[in-house]
């Protein structure tokens, strides 16, 4: 093979690279010479990935349940990857910020539109049987989802709505004691914390508090206001943040609500969720009024937050029965 000028240039650049690190380029070329070619299955660790489903029961649809939740967590990891790039960018611009939020919105769009797999992709009879083997585990225990919330907004917006105004100037620790999701995992009969919640807090509380402090001035709401103060054009960014607000605080919880209604609503008595969560009041967006960016919505829009979506889902489900 002829050593073209392009090849010689690449070799010269490699030589400079390795010399700068005090390394011998020839040794690295030997390694390249003897190394096997990379395969698709090795690169993405396919065999390991496909071995990570371990159903607890013999019901076939449990494997669907497991895989969908694993896919969900991978999308959450993608979202957090974007959150980190935004928060740690040394010279953040509205353009970069907008592009990365668009990516997160694409991930959540994929999640919300694929949730039909959960709603219609399992036999109700199978689900109601295998779910009892999952106690006290619950999708409520997704730590990555909570980290996305912390990255997306001022921590005060995650405080239960009854305490938000009162704790607006409180410490992160005080706010965490009244974070909204703690009120969504109380025992229906006693009002005490469920085992699901106790496990969740034990595993993630330290991480959540550390991230909340780290993102105090680098969450999306704060960064948006910083760019606005600099006079940057944040029109497109505002549009994407509104979409994110709806995806995370309306569409995603509503997808779960739709699934819960399908599988857990039983007239006249509702079936408790596996974690004992009071899902009827926890999941509907109109009850929680979680809004990441109140400064991007009108008072009327916030007053009607989630109402239309919840009503449309209920009407659709009722018309099918």
From TrEMBL:
Per UniProt, the keywords (alphabetical) are: Dioxygenase, Oxidoreductase
Q: Which GO terms describe its biological process?
A: L-tryptophan catabolic process to acetyl-CoA; L-tryptophan catabolic process to kynurenine
**What's a single GO MF annotation on this record?**
metal ion binding
Is the keyword DNA-binding in the record? no
Report the domain of life of the source organism.
Answer: Bacteria
InterPro entries found in the cross-reference section: Trp/Indoleamine_2_3_dOase-like, Trp_2_3_dOase
Its name, as the record gives it, is Tryptophan 2,3-dioxygenase apoenzyme
Provide the species name: Pedobacter xixiisoli
């Amino acid at each position: 093979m002829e050593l073209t000028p392009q090849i010689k240039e690449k070799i010269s650049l490699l030589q400079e690279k390795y010399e700068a690190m005090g390394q011998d380029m020839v040794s690295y070329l030997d390694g390249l010479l003897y190394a096997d070619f990379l395969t698709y299955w090795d690169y993405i660790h396919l065999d390991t990935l496909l071995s990570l489903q371990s159903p607890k029961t013999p019901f076939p649809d449990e494997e669907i349940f497991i895989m969908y939740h694993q896919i969900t967590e991978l999308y959450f990891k993608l979202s957090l990857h974007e959150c980190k790039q935004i928060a740690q960018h040394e010279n953040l611009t509205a353009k970069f910020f907008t592009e990365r939020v668009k990516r997160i919105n694409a991930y959540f769009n994929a999640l919300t539109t694929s949730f039909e797999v959960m709603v219609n992709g399992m036999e109700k009879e199978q689900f109601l049987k295998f779910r009892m083997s999952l106690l006290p585990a619950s999708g409520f225990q997704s730590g990555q989802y909570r980290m996305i919330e912390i990255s997306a907004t001022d921590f005060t917006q995650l405080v239960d709505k009854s305490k938000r105004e009162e704790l607006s100037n409180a410490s992160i620790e005080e706010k965490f004691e009244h974070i909204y999701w703690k009120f969504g995992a109380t025992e229906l009969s006693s009002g005490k914390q469920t085992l699901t919640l106790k496990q969740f807090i034990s595993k993630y509380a330290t991480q959540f508090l550390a991230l909340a402090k780290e993102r105090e001035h680098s969450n999306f709401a704060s960064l948006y206001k910083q760019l606005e103060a600099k006079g940057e054009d944040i029109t497109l960014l505002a549009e994407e943040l509104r979409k994110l607000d709806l995806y995370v605080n309306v569409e995603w919880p509503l997808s779960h609500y739709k699934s819960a209604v399908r599988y857990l609503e039983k007239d006249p008595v509702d079936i408790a969720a596996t974690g004992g969560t009071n899902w009827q009041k926890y999941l509907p967006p109109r009850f929680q009024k979680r809004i990441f960016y109140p400064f991007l919505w009108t008072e009327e829009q916030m007053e009607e937050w989630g109402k239309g979506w919840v009503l449309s889902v209920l009407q659709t489900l009722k018309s099918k029965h």
